[in-house]
Amino acid sequence: MVENNQVEAARSVVQAIIDNVDTVIQGKHEAVELVVLSLIAKGHVLLEDLPGTGKTTLVSTLAKSVDCGFRRIQFTPDIMPSDVSGFSIYNQKTQDFEFRPGGVMSNLVLADEINRASAKTQSALLEAMEERQVTVDAVTYRLQEPFMVLATQNPIEQFGTYPLPEAQLDRFLIKLSMGYPDFAQEMRVLELGDSAKKAIHPVATAQQVLQVRQVAEQIHISKMVFRYIVEIVTATRANPEIQVGSSPRGGIALTALSRAYAMLRGRSYVMPDDVKYLAPYVLSHRIALSHEAKVQGRTAQDVIASVISGIAIPYCEEDALRG
Questions:
Q1: What does pTM read for this prediction?
Q2: What is the Cα 80 distance to its own chain's centre?
């Protein structure tokens, strides 16, 4: 079991990244926290919101806060899969083929407006997101860790877009919406201008992120909490408002993110309340609502909330949680 001093050291690294991003992204602490925790949990993030709400700024600020590689892929209808994964080109001097890396060959990858690319191009990300590798001309290239895809999409404008298939959505650890800032926060954004962005500097290295990940993986989860996670996931498959429930990958993702969240809270063990808080972010994009639920105006978040409320939260003594 991980020691408390290890948890505290890892927590300080994660908190430093969150605080650094918070200086630019005003009033969105919860979203910033979840994105950074997704990096620690080896997950990918889908940011779905209106233009101008800070999606791209959040990603670029996170990239500047961690001293590692960063690439942006602007998805358009004419972008090719080779632009994402890379391609081989014949070198006349060496009389051989050379591999030219695509945009996904980096640590942090921004897939901007991902739903504007065709399904064929979107699928170029599937292997990278799940296996952390790309295969070009039967040759497999491992991606350098830490690796994370942060994708953005506009939920309103549908002309010229291609909805993400369920298989692609399932590979995102969480789906977030930034939302508009409140009056005071928007005033602060105008006052700061570009000064906050220019002042951003790295506060953690790639090696530190990998070390924090190792600590997070050792955070203890009791059998009662494991059971609670499985109960929530399996309940999505039996709910009449849900046509297609969450896959087992949803439970795996919820487990990983719960460990990272508990570590950020300075604990060496996961509590049921951690799971309850994170479940809507992890599971909402992994379900398909029934026709009746859509007609009634229900959202995936509403349905997941009702699923969670119908499951008893296990009472666990702290000693039992610690194992």
A1: 0.92
A2: 24
